[in-house]
DNA sequence: TTCTTTCGTGAACACGTGTTTACAAAACAT
DNA sequence: ATGTTTTGTAAACACGTGTTCACGAAAGAA
């Protein structure tokens, strides 16, 4: 392990200046004249010298590293989405000369697991952390914010919570569902049901709120038996329809699914019961999953720009790191209806 | 930014011992008696103290961080595979208390791009790096190994290259293709063609070697016009078949594709020309892509265990980091034939 | 020319930790 | 009771860098 033997002292000796001057050259101090600067730079380039990061950080500089924490509650989300989220964060960070430390949280209720996360922050491995897939108001995240760490959260919204160092980016789930209801009403639907997602996550309650508001706005009654629980998974969509059919109640003419996976599950169950889509039942999803344009029929859904979201969040995080004064942001991003073949005018 | 105000000196004062003793407690020195240890640990826990990583590294400890470099030559590989590779590395590293810094290399021929990679190594941000998607004998990787950095490479094989600090894990592409030929010969095929992958990558030449060897072993002639170039992408499989059909030469009765994507492209082109699979043409792929069991017909292919590969590679990398003596490994992993519906006895 | 200001740079200190050295106190052996 | 080993801990140094402070040299002003 003979590497890393070159340091700023050696560079200083070779260039015939003091170590301070080397440091000034590296950090672009204007006081050093061009002749000296070039003399030092020549040696630096020749010896492939890069300042040691640990020493720089110890001396007060930033790590230039962002932690990316992906919370995966049981369900393995090995789909293309998390890949895109990750790529977007990495590329955006990279463009600002920042690095990304990726970490997977298998179970955010396991003390051992969250201790590992706290360790990363307290050890000073990262300047800030981004959490993906967190429940609303996850205690250990609140604790980190309370300790003064900079935290970015995706798809979460805590009304009234605008503390320093909390950067929140969310999609406008509420307005999305309202738009979905508007669209279905425009197709003459009056009996509209919903399969929601996990109510502990932000998107669940938000979508519920939107549904209630929109139905009330159109003067339509709310049938409790058509508001089905789910957890954002395909299986839960399947189970919701199964339960609904087996309960024997009249079916709605349209269903809003919390996301495309749920919609796929529901479509499978509906197919098995001989309910034709969109002839007998219109269905609308969320997220514009890659498979949505391959399903049978092609799924009408809402397109959400994950790349835009993560890029914006990452830039805001970097701003928070570099600004001394405390920084907080709460951005809501609209989604866009993509009309395909799963809804029909009645 | 009031955090991180707690350090080992404070802990020492609060526990009524010297800073050295605190350090000894943290690093599990046997010389400190249980009473003292407990006294110190109590304060450490109470104040949520974690040693500062930068200071530890500066004092000689390891970063406990592995760089994961994903080389993406133009083609965006946003598929499930890279996600699994990443997850496997992170989980394995995490189990040994190591962290992963993920970096995307958009173009490994761009000097700016490779300078960014070198910077990560030379700054001491990582103890070792893993490269995914590298060409054989990529110059900047060789340079890093030459500098004494620990490097892990996936799916590469440089005969005779067993230098220290080079950890190579590859699938046995050569034997895989030989097995494929054996299987097809067992189905009475004699006219066997191949659509290969990028010859600059390891898997390309290895598969070609295997093909030549196996055909010769069975005493079958090598038809040069049936050995088609490709680059591991769906499009290249499509183009290969298009070219073959348009050239007017007699078609083989079976084709070995470099991977499943290539096979899918080939199947699409064959379908467009009215060639039925497997009736008129048998086809066999590699990698057991998630879509392979959904294609029409379901694709016979070779299953490769990426998780096993990355996990093994990561563990070996950690061994190299922690062992003082130089370490090198070159592991070849077999693949397993998965028979589905795309090959037929003639 | 002499005094003042600007410019350039070296010396010294700080950051937080691991480790080596040295030394006192306790335990043991005679 | 005295000499010897063991045990536990404190003080000092090292790691590589950024930054402050002070000071000499050069440039400008009177």
UniProtKB/TrEMBL annotation, chains A, B:
UniProt keyword Cytoplasm, yes or no: no
Transferase recorded as keyword: no
Any coiled-coil regions, as ranges: none
Record domain HTH lacI-type: where: 11-60
Molecular function GO terms recorded: DNA-binding transcription factor activity; transcription cis-regulatory region binding
Highest taxon listed in the record's lineage: Bacteria
Family matches, as SMART domains: HTH_LACI (SM00354)
InterPro entries for this protein: HTH_LacI (IPR000843), LacI/GalR-like_sensor (IPR046335), Lambda_DNA-bd_dom_sf (IPR010982), Peripla_BP_I (IPR028082)
UniProt KW keywords: DNA-binding, Transcription, Transcription regulation
Name the record gives this protein: LacI family transcriptional regulator
Organism encoding this protein: Pullulanibacillus camelliae
